[in-house]
Amino acid sequence: MEKEITNESQCSEAMEVDVKRPGQHYKNQLMLSEWLVDVPADLTEEWILVPCPVGRRNLVVAGKGVTRSYSKNGYCMLTFPSALPSGNKSVAFKDSDYTLLDCIYSEVSRTFYVLDIMSWKTHPVVDSETEFRFYWLKTKLEEECPSAAIYSKTNKNKFVTLPTFSCTPEGVTAALDAEYPFQVDGLLFYHKRTHYTFGSTPLVGWLKPYMVQEILGISVPSKYMTEKPSSYSNLPQHISSESHKPKSKGQQECQGMSREDKKAQLKRETNSSGDAEAMHV
């Protein structure tokens, strides 16, 4: 079993990506979506829509005066000071305090777009329902910790919450028509009553914007329809073709490699594109 990363020097204090070994506490610790193939009967009443930016899915851990981000596989990607509770050494903190956030990281804008919250200042909320977690996240981040949204010496990356919409036809239309300070990768549909669970769950759905008309029967602006690949026919066929795709070149190259060579290959892929960690199913 892999050991947790304990040596702070293992991750660079600079903002360059530095891929490290996964720790047992950070691997597979994110809640992942599934394709929204079947529309829930209670979609309009019991679900929340969140527009998701293009970027790399990260688990952010702040504690003991330092903030680190980890990939879905548990690799330490960044180490930096932040304005999150216990996230930097310039402010007094308790060794026992920690904050866990589920984020999408945009390297271009140096921004963590916060999807969800697991713990704030050692107060876990994984067993709380989605509605409460979203309320708690917005309250804590925007009202109690507004400096986290501003670049500074003690906050090297911004932390920004994402807007939420109802899943009524009017709410979905509003989400599609809205202008965002980021490129939209897709739409997440959260059930209001679900707890934060690790791994994939049907209680979080995922659609690309151009799929909305096909699945929900709601008109989609042309800016999203132009993103539809020419090879796309329908969602079931797309899922089937994705499941039968051959391994990527990087995956093939990793077979038979030593641990160090695998780490080097992963670093090259991570530096070249965030797609491997992008938020989809």
Give start-end ranges of low-pLDDT stretches: 1-22, 249-254, 265-281
Share of β-strand residues: 25-35%
How many beta strands in the DSSP annotation? 12
Largest sheet: 7 strands, mixed
| Shape annotation | globular
Order of helices and strands: EHEEEEEEEHEEHEEHHHHH
* Rg, nearest Å: 19 Å
Helices, strands, pairings?
Blueprint: E1 31-35, H1 43-46, E2 47-53, E3 56-63, E4 66-70, E5 76-80, E6 98-106, E7 111-120, E8 123-124, H2 130-144, E9 158-161, E10 165-166, H3 169-177, E11 184-191, E12 199-207, H4 212-216, H5 222-225, H6 235-243, H7 249-254, H8 259-272
Parallel strand pairs: 1-12, 7-9
Antiparallel strand pairs: 2-10, 2-11, 3-4, 3-6, 4-5, 6-7, 7-8, 11-12
What does this structure look like?
- The protein is α+β, with helices and mostly antiparallel strands.
- The chain is built from 8 helices and 12 strands.
- It has helices at 43-46, 130-144, 169-177, 212-216, 222-225, 235-243, 249-254, 259-272; strands at 31-35, 47-53, 56-63, 66-70, 76-80, 98-106, 111-120, 123-124, 158-161, 165-166, 184-191, 199-207.
- The strands form 2 sheets. Strands 3, 4, 5, 6, 7, 8 and 9 form a 7-stranded mixed beta sheet that branches. Strands 1-12-11-2-10 form a 5-stranded mixed beta sheet.
- A hairpin with a 2-residue loop joins strand 3 (56-63) and strand 4 (66-70).
- The protein starts with 30 loop residues before the first strand and ends in a 9-residue tail after the last helix.
- Residues 1-22, 249-254 and 265-281 have low confidence and may be disordered.
